[in-house]
């Protein structure tokens, strides 16, 4: 069962899930080092720590790595590990496909990074706008590696989505109706549908870019009748749903964790579940807000502005639902809960600054400045990464059989929260003061130097906080307290399995008569299925 | 600083800053509501030792509908103001109205041409309190023309020109930057917009279109080096020369404030640039010429005579 050969050839969803998480953690270190290099270069004006061409490779690889090699795989990894357990299944629907998607992921990551040895990494940014990404302006092969690597990753992600959809559709335990799905499983399902329709746009665009670069096609070349704006449409038709793809599973984690540590069911399951579907639908109609600075016509832009604002409503519904779940609870401040609460506040900031970009004239000032950098780090770090920290502290006991250390957890939490806010809050001001993003250095204009220095200082603290997390994992794997099956007194099915679960997961799946089968088991006097609104 | 977001110096950016202030107040109120609710709950409902789980509650339709409807109302209001501000900032131009100037992005410098033939680089002059219609173009990759205090951003997309109104309330030199990543020297694709009273502006415009005076002395020697080094393959030195430019026009370069988008245009800096542009702006598209110190001096004298 264990042994390295068996890890290589495994089709067990738990082993594959763990492998996803471990590779993501590795690339998180790599992407983090890239971030540190950038912050070193930007700590003061006119530094020459990194040459411009190196800086451009580093920021391109940082974005590409964090999105495609960290956030996506770690979310898929959590899903692959947890979804079968949560729905009372013994495996994913297609175990071998599951292994294939993981190994595609590894190959894609390898292709991206081997570019460093093959004449230079890609350097046109994570959205590689044409014509900058075309041969005449980027002759070295870095961008070919970028496009091929992403193609493999994109293909793998689509397959993973198919696997999730079929698993959730077909493998649920008796009694687990769709309306009783744990919210993490529900959001993974919606997310997979989102992936299924969004990723092919990227894959198609990548094929076109590769044809332009390698076969002298002219899809995006204006000199031969192509259109650079076409690339932008394709990329963002994928790219904006992608933002939600990276955040919906995190929403799912928060929707599991906040209730358990508040000792209350989620406030308004129906609205939380339905708002996820609303977000998924709307997310296909907002891509042009990445292109408001292109001359596209006022009416056209207004429509996308309206839809972009509208998507704030279902997102707000979720935030209110989580906050209301706290009210009247009996709140336990575990490290997991601390991260979940911090998520609530940080993500609210990121969500609100997002509305600024839907407000077109504000976007005309702030797009492509450091305000954007601040905004999406509040969404993806303050949002997704904080939820992942919460999820790691919550599910690590299930995965390893041991609890993560809570003292180190506090250090981890406070360093990350303080470091994160120092790094990124000041970047809002830099954007407002006119600092464009993606610059390898900047003039010494009033206020820019101190704010950048604060940001770099914060990044160092954030880096230490992340290292504490990794130390905690290693130390707790060796010395952590035994967790038992159900350390948090939780309610979903994964906590009925052993920790770590045996290959077949459950000896016998508990009866499912409501959304909280283990609550029903523990409280026969007050089962959810008998309570009003319990189903 | 926050309350003077963008430090506006034009009616358009004033309007945007006003919208931003409104947005900021709304956002702050919403954040405080969420943070207040969370903070209150954390204090009020922290678990007491030995407490049993509270009796389950599952939500309240009425509250849920309320917190869907109220945000819907809020974004509707924001949308109305958005559309109004858009219409003001991007006020329609007369049908068929020709641009007052054409601004073209090049890797990594900005060219500006006026209808009378004046051409300049990285320094754009406008009159105070009269809006000019600027057409934004690119000859290579996508750039973005942005003067934070004066105007909205406009992407410079090859083959797809955009238009903005460029206007300033008061005289001054306003910093601008390329805001779309465009390659190695994106960071220094910076420029200035110089706003001056109407009379000064029209004098400047007339002067920029004039032909250069015949160089004498050291400057005359400079013209020889200029020819020898084929500087003219990339640079025009007079407004009469209207070839597609590989490099900035050097006509009247001595009247400009900046070199390479950032360096103050002094004799010392000009000589440094001529001797080795690559050490000042690594990767820019002007190769380091192979010049003797005397050649640099002569060229500097020549370019300084182009007033
Ligand atoms: Cu540019």
Report on this structure:
The complex is a heterodimer of chains A (535) and B (307). With 535 residues, chain A is mainly alpha-helical. Chain A has a single domain, classed as Up-down Bundle (Cytochrome C Oxidase, Chain A). Chain A has 17 helices and no strands. Chain A has helices at residues 4-9, 13-42, 52-86, 95-114, 142-170, 183-215, 228-245, 248-262, 269-283, 298-310, 312-326, 335-358, 360-366, 370-400, 406-432, 448-479, 517-522. Chain A is globular, with a radius of gyration of 23 Å. In chain A, 64% of the residues are buried. By secondary structure, chain B is an alpha+beta fold. Chain B folds into two domains: 1-35 and 70-209, Immunoglobulin-like (Sandwich), CATH 2.60.40; 218-304, Immunoglobulin-like (Sandwich). Helix content of chain B is 36%, strand content 18%. Chain B has seven helices and twelve strands. Chain B has helices spanning 11-44, 61-89, 198-209, 218-228, 267-275, 277-280, 293-305, and strands at 101-106, 109-113, 119-121, 123-127, 132-138, 143-146, 154-156, 162-166, 172-178, 190-196, 258-259, 263-264. In chain B, strands 3-2-1-5-8 form a five-stranded mixed β-sheet, with no helix packed on it. In chain B, strands 4-10-9-6-7 form a five-stranded mixed β-sheet, with helices on one face. In chain B, α1 (11-44) runs antiparallel to α2 (61-89), α4 crosses α7 and α5 crosses α7. At the A-B interface, α3, α9, α10, α11 and α12 of A face α1, α2 and β9 of B. The structure holds copper (II) ion. Copper (II) ion (CU) is lined by residues 105, 108, 143, 178, 180, 182, 186, 189 of chain B.
Summarize the structure.
The complex is a heterodimer of chains A (535) and B (307). Chain A contains 17 helices and no strands.
Total domain modules of chain A: 1
Could you say which overall geometry of chain B the principal axes of the C-alpha atoms support? elongated
Largest interface, counted with CB-CB under 8 A? A-B, 92 and 86 residues
Please compute the radius of gyration of chain B using only Cα atoms.
27 Å
Number of helices of chain B: 7
Structure classification of chain B: alpha+beta
Amount of beta strand of chain A: under 5%
**Extended strand count of chain A:** 0
Distance between the termini of chain A: 39 Å
Report low-confidence residues of chain B grouped into runs of 5 or more: none
Q: How much helix, percentage-wise, in residues of chain A?
A: 55-70%
Q: What's the end-to-end separation of chain B, in Å?
A: 39 Å
Query: Averaging pLDDT over every residue of chain A, what do you get?
Result: 94
Q: Give the overall silhouette of chain A.
A: globular
CATH class of the largest domain in chain B: Mainly Beta
- Write down the CATH topology of the largest domain in chain B: Immunoglobulin-like
The low-confidence parts of chain A are: none
Q: Architecture of chain A, according to CATH?
A: Up-down Bundle
Proportion in β-strands of chain B: 15-25%
Biggest sheet features of chain A: none
User: What is the subunit arrangement here?
Assistant: heterodimer
């Amino acid at each position: 069962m264990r042994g390295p050969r068996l890890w290589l050839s495994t089709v067990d969803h738990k082993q594959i899930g763990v492998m996803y998480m471990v590779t993501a953690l590795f690339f998180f270190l790599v992407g983090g080092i890239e971030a540190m290099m950038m912050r070193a270069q930007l700590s003061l004006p006119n530094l020459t720590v990194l040459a411009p061409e190196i800086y451009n490779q580093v920021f391109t690889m940082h974005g590409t790595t964090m999105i495609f090699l960290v956030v996506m795989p770690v979310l898929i990894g959590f899903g692959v590990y947890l979804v079968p357990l949560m729905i009372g299944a013994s495996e994913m629907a297609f175990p071998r496909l599951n292994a294939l998607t993981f190994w595609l992921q590894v190959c894609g990551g390898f292709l991206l990074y081997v570019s460093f040895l093959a004449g230079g990494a890609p350097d046109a940014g994570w959205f590689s706008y044409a014509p900058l990404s075309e041969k005449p302006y980027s002759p070295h092969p870095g961008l070919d590696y970028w496009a091929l690597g992403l193609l493999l990753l994109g293909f793998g992600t689509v397959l993973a989505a198919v696997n999730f959809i079929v698993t959730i559709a077909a493998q649920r335990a008796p009694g687990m109706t769709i309306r009783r799905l744990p919210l993490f499983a529900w959001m993974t399902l919606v997310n997979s549908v989102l992936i299924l329709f969004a990723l092919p746009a990227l894959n198609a665009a990548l094929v076109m870019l590769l044809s332009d670069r390698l076969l002298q096609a002219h899809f995006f070349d204006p000199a031969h009748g192509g259109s650079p704006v076409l690339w932008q449409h394709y990329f963002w038709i994928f790219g904006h749903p992608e933002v939600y793809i990276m955040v919906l599973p995190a929403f799912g984690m928060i929707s599991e964790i906040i209730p358990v540590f508040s000792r209350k069911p989620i406030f308004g399951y129906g609205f939380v579940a339905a708002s996820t579907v609303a977000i998924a639908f709307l997310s296909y109609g907002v891509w042009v807000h990445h292109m408001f600075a292109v001359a596209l016509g006022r009416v056209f832009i207004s429509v996308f502005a309206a839809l972009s604002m509208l998507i704030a409503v279902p997102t707000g519904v979720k935030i209110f639902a989580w906050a209301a779940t706290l009210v009247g609870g009996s709140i336990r401040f575990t490290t997991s809960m601390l991260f979940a609460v911090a998520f609530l506040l940080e993500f609210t900031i990121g969500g609100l600054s997002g509305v600024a970009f839907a407000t077109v004239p504000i976007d005309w000032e702030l797009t492509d400045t450091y305000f954007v950098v601040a905004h999406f780090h509040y969404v993806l770090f303050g949002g997704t990464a904080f939820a992942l920290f919460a999820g790691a502290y919550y599910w690590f006991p299930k995965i390893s059989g041991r609890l993560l250390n809570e003292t180190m957890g506090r250090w981890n939490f406070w360093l990350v929260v303080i470091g994160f806010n120092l790094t990124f809050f000041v970047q809002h001001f830099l954007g407002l003061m006119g600092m464009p993003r993606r610059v390898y250095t900047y003039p010494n204009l009033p206020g820019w130097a101190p704010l950048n220095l604060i940001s770099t200082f914060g990044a160092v603290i954030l880096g230490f906080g992340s290292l504490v997390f990794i130390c905690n994992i290693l130390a707790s794997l060796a010395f952590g307290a035994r967790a038992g099956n159900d350390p948090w007194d939780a309610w979903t099915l994964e906590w009925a399995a052993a920790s770590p679960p045996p290959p077949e997961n459950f000896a016998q799946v508990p009866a499912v008569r409501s959304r909280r089968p283990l609550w029903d088991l523990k409280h026969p006097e007050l089962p959810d299925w008998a309570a009003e609104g319990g189903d | 600083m926050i309350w003077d977001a963008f430090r506006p110096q034009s009616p358009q950016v004033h309007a945007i800053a006003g919208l931003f202030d409104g947005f900021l107040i709304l956002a702050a109120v919403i954040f405080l509501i969420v943070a207040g609710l969370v903070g209150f709950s954390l204090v009020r409902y922290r678990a007491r030792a030995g407490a049993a789980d509270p009796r389950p509650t599952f939500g309240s339709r009425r509250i849920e509908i309320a917190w869907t409807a109220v945000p819907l109302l809020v974004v509707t209001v924001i949308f109305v103001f958005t559309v109004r501000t858009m219409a003001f900032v991007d006020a329609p131009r007369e049908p068929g109205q020709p641009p007052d100037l054409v601004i073209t992005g090049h890797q990594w410098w900005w060219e500006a041409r006026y209808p009378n033939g004046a051409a300049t680089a990285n320094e754009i002059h406008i009159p105070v309190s009269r809006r000019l219609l600027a057409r934004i173009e690119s000859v290579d990759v996508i750039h973005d023309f942005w003067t934070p205090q004066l105007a909205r951003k406009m992407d410079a997309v090859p083959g797809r020109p955009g238009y903005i109104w460029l206007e300033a309330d008061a005289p001054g030199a306003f910093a601008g930057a390329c805001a779309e990543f465009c390659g190695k020297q994106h960071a220094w694709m910076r420029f200035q917009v110089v706003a001056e009273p109407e009379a000064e502006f029209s004098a400047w415009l007339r002067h920029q279109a004039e032909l250069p005076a015949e160089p004498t002395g050291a400057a005359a020697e400079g013209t020889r080096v200029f020819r020898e080094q084929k500087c003219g393959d990339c640079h025009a030195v007079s407004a009469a020369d209207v070839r597609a430019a590989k490099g900035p026009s050097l006509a009247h370069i001595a009247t400009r404030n900046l070199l390479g988008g950032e360096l103050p245009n002094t004799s010392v800096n000009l000589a440094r640039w001529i001797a080795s542009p690559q050490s000042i702006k690594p990767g820019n598209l002007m190769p380091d010429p192979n010049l003797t110190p005397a050649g640099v001096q002569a060229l500097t004298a020549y370019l300084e005579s182009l007033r």
